[in-house]
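Let's study my pick:
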Amino acid sequence: MYRFKFKLLVCTLLFAGAIIGCKQKDLNVPIVTNTQAPGTVSNVKVQNLNGRAKLTYTLPSNTDLSYVKAVYEISPGVFNQVVASRYTNTMTVDGFGDTSSHKIKLYAVNSSNVSSAAVEVTVKPLTPGYILARNNLEIAATFGGFTIKTQNPTMDNLAIIPLVDTSGTGQWVQTVGMDNVYSNDSAISAVIRNQPSVAHNYAFTVRDRWMHYSDTLFLKITPWFEEMLDKTKWSTFALPHDATVLNNGGYTWPYYMWDGVLHPGWPHVYFTVESATVPQMVTIDLGAEHNFSRFQVNPYLEQGNVYYVRGNPKDFELWGSNNPDLSDPVDVNNTPGNSWTKIGTFHVIKPSGSPYMTESTSDQTAAYNGWQFDIPAGTQSYRYIRIRQLSNWQGSYFICISEFTLWGN
């Protein structure tokens, strides 16, 4: 009796395993194989766009239609394929690098992967995005390099490639710090630094993601002389509404913020009292008027080996003056009076966007290297500057800065 039940159980398991094996083997195979080609798409209409075209069509009536496929050549010998499901009657064919006429072959494909006969249509794309960006390209000398600006109305993924002929022999290279500018923003803006203040021939071209290259813009550029401002000439310029400094190691003034130590330990850091209820400020006398190009904030490494926390700057303003009012009139939000001009508002970006107290390697690297910001072009020269903290990473106003550095001339 028991032997019979055991044999029955074994047979049942083997039969079930065979069924499961069949299901796994045939999982991605159509239930019905249809070798009959489906009907073709019809009533194809073309809307030509920049570097692409939108196709609208009528689907064939086949019940096992799976998708519609477009096959076409985007440049000599380079083919592209676009697929649209049976639940839509439109598709966009893209990747064209010119405004020439291009033949598109459209196929309807059934669930057995059998294609219909081709339906051929012609598209004539408008000016591609990379050419529009090249036509709008503006290059201008700035401190230590040059600015790159252009419009990208199609919001294509573009690369702007800068090159320089440092030898004067037509050998075009990318020197240290001269990286490609990648963006799909509608307005692209970047600054290339670390260039000597010497006239050189530069070249600029724009590339899209299909490896189409624009013609080249050649310019002779002399970057403006830039240097790190001499911090030995800086001094505290305390005004009535400046932040109260926490007593750190006997110093009650902001010297630690420009002592040249980028990664200090406690208490060698500028740190204000944490009870502030309005935006806090600190003022520095640079010793002479300067034109500014950029600045860097080095945050303090807090307990837990984290940077994007507590009083380290998140949102802040930079103000300038050459004749500050010593009575220091401010409004209820501690905004500087008329003797001060706002240079700009700045925001620290945490690369990973991770939660408070959680930091990735890229977050830590960015903070360790220092958060750098460009000064808006056309800013006048100033002797006195003021940092106004709008919000720290804790969501309050007190300030913590390990080191503050300015470049210009």
Q: What stands out?
A: The two ends are 101 Å apart (CA to CA).
